[in-house]
Write a structure and sequence with these properties.
CATH class: Alpha Beta
Shape: globular
Number of helices: 10
Number of strands: 12
Strand order of the largest sheet: 7-8-9-6-5-4-3-2-1-10-11-12
Order of helices and strands: EHEHEHEHHEHEHEEEEEEHHH
Bound molecules: iron/sulfur cluster
CATH topology: TIM Barrel
Amino acid sequence: MPGNILTDSKGRPVRYIRVSVTDRCNLRCRYCAPSAEFVSLLHSQVLSYEEIERVAAILAPFGVTSVRLTGGEPLVRKHIDRLIGSLARTSGIEDLSLTTNGILLAEHARALKEAGLLRVNVSLDSLKPDRFRWITNSPDKRRKENLGSVLEGLEEAQRVGLAPVKVNVVLMRGLNDDEVGDFVDLTREGNLEVRFIEFMPMGPNGFWNRDRVVPADEVIGRIMKSHPGLEHVGKSKGSGPAVLHRIPGHRGSIGFITPVSSHFCAHCNRVRLTADGKLRTCLFSDTETDLLPLIRGGASDEQILGTIRQALLQKPDGHRISARGALAACARTMSHIGG
Ligand code: SF4
């Protein structure tokens, strides 16, 4: 490993940073948003685009070549195409992607692509309008037809050439696991990568329980019943942990992300930067390092990098959510971390 490559406590190289550009969202997904009143950060507490660019530029020469923009919902933050443009021009950044709930994707896709975005992940947990509305619990009751906007966004993302276009489905037993077949059907004509994500305990909103987890092996078994030709084809493009399968004759592919039944911490390659400038070395560890005072306090790039290296030496070897009895694995909800 070249000496200057950023590694963590276990010598795992850090290749990938997930940056939450806002904690705000136009949805309130029941397993993500806090159960209590959602109090968003003040504008002054949120990293500016210039500050995000600076952190990304500090890390890129040390191997962190993949940047994912997340939220809350990143597309609710104004002029995000400007940030994407700067990151796309930042030397050393090779992969630039975004995770969105898709509601605003149709109207932004072309500008994002032209700014330099390469690919997009769309979080979508139901193809049934009423169930979609229930799961997403949208605060804006006037927006009757959010599912339609997401499906339009998926179309437009493919049309403008963002690739691959991935669909992230959090499978929850008894809530949406009866839609596995419908999501698989999306891969017949659509050049989509549909990924089934095991339901993780995130934050204290009490929506998670172990019985709602549908292990990937069970999902594969269900798909094999109707598609016995389902074949394993390897890893998904990008820095993510998804294991890909393909049904002969289908344009798209099917991925499985298994943080509960078969975690991938031994090969973890990521860190997270929250919207308020906290470095989170592990999704499930509440040990965070506040970079904001350094960034706004005149620290040099070397000092900021040194602080990040120190934080990585404290990175846990993995999560403990697979252990029986694990309930809420961390204090922050997903909407504050960016997933
Ligand atoms: S739980 Fe932590 S160590 Fe494991 S893959 Fe996620 S971020 Fe990495």
